[in-house]
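Practice set, problem 2.
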Amino acid sequence: MPAHADIIVSSPDSTEVKLVVEAKLRVPDMEATESQLKNFMLSMRCPLGLLMSPERLWVYIDRFTSDSEDSIEKLGDFDVSELVKFSSFAIADGIAFEIAVQMWLEKLPSIMSQNRPSDPKLREIISHYILPAVETGIVRAAGPR
């Protein structure tokens, strides 16, 4: 399966990819999906990747220690049902979920607070990794929807 992502956060001049996001309603084969995201991160030289479902968020960081997937570390696996509100699970809703995730990223600077999200580790990862990428970048779909 070719490496791709659904959402990309790039620098304003589009020369640097800061964050890639794979938004999936379901993740039936976690190993293959994770490998696909890591390969895309490697091909784009992107330091941060998110794999997101309506219930879970997996966060990955490339330490740039090698040119292989071994360089990419999973920072965590989090419940995000409180962050991105999405309840429809029809197959055709994959695009709607991608749009919901993109809107969440775009609004992230204005919705972050000291007590939200409630998980302190997730709040720290959003504050230290995801928020800086979004605040200094342009959030856009990686391809046509």
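Problem 2, part (b): a different protein.
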Amino acid sequence: MRLPSSKLPPESRSVVRFLIVGNLGTCIQYALYYGFIELFPLMGWEGDFMVNVSFTVAYVLEMIYNYLGTSYYTFERKPDLKNAGGFLISRGINYVVQMGLLNLFMLFMNDKWAGIVAIVLSGVLNFFILRFVFKKKDNKKEESEQSATQETEL
């Protein structure tokens, strides 16, 4: 099945696809986070620790979705150990940024708003890190294809 983003020029296709995967991931992460911060107090968990646990569990679950979406749809690559490692490093950085922003914003706003602001602001940084991780493979592939083409022409 060809999706509408397939008709876009290659240089903007990954940006549009990243936005689709990222926005859906943001919705998944925030819905889980919101659900957990509503559910955990019913089980006796309260306070900043509960908020951080809720955020972390939601982040990990969303990360699984995001890796598959980023691999197959955004950058049209099969998951492998190399891009999985780069993805985990980028998401580790993103997690630290999100947790820092979450705890910073909780000083100024309630935990529900702080969560969504932290998720959205860290998304831009994450795109550039992931673009490097998944596109680096393309550069090596293009170089080897160019070398093979040049050798064939000789």
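Answer key, part (b): The chain has one domain: 12-138. DSSP finds four helices and no strands in the chain.
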